[in-house]
Amino acid sequence: MNPSSQLAPAPATSDVGIPSTGDQEPAGHFYGVRATARIRAAHNGRVTTLPQLRSDGPFHLRRMRPHGNAAMVGIIGAMSAPLGGDRLILDITAEDRAELEVTTAAATLALRGPTTDAATYDVRLTAGEHARLRWLPRPLISAAGSNLRQTYTVELAATSRFVLREEQLLGRADEEPGHLVSRILVHRAGRPLLDQHTAYGAPEPGWDGPAVLHGHRAVGQLLVVDPRLDHRQDPVLLGEGTKDGCAVLAPLAGGPALLATAIAPTTSTLRELLDEAHAHALAR
């Protein structure tokens, strides 16, 4: 990943340990990086500040120019990751009334590395009361021979607003993808909102068939949680009848939330579909 000229250095601060959440971590391997990076945003009564930016391993955290009232953090890749055997954790918290947006400077490339053991990439996202948190990374590329298990664990307060956007490219040009397993687990006000599991690439059965991706290689999701969406929504189908992929935007039963799922032949088309879904969500 190449650093962006908009990213300015920020000092790291100390922190206390945060207990592990989500599924139990697989047993360690002789190979692989173990790294935990943390971002904490707080509201000081006037603006959102960043009292904690702790870089670690491949995660190089940088403050960016604020966008409106939101603090902005960019993540720069300091080394190739995730590779087989890596255990990576990114812990992001927007405290009460804080507004935080986090993105990455470049796409994340999953590679095989020195072992065929799975790499794990755990992203933990927490938003407090009246907080606003947006996780908007660049695409994740599953290269041939890679083996990655990615997990999003999200904890939201009843009044928080949240956007999660993920884009996945299955294989680079003219290559088969690696094995990619992804889970999104979301709780709102202590109650389950979403628990979704997807898996692509060999040895998963039927992942490329007509009932799943139908030959497409770009897949993505957009989750919008906002108390202002607390009224009945009808599903919307986008891109229907074209060969350039499609997306569906539908409400979740457990709360004021909309989930868009899209497939497309390329990341650029996927991004257009997710942008259109986001525009529909905001217009409701």
TrEMBL record:
Subunit structure as annotated in this protein's UniProt entry: UreD, UreF and UreG form a complex that acts as a GTP-hydrolysis-dependent molecular chaperone, activating the urease apoprotein by helping to assemble the nickel containing metallocenter of UreC. The UreE protein probably delivers the nickel.
Lineage: Bacteria, Bacillati, Actinomycetota, Actinomycetes, Kitasatosporales
Family in the record: Belongs to the UreD family.
Function noted in UniProt: Required for maturation of urease via the functional incorporation of the urease nickel metallocenter.
UniProt-annotated location(s): Cytoplasm
Region (Disordered): 1-28
Entry-linked InterPro entries: UreD (IPR002669)
Keywords: Chaperone, Cytoplasm, Nickel insertion
Native species: Streptomyces xiangluensis
Protein name: Urease accessory protein UreD
Broad class of the protein's primary localization: cytoplasm
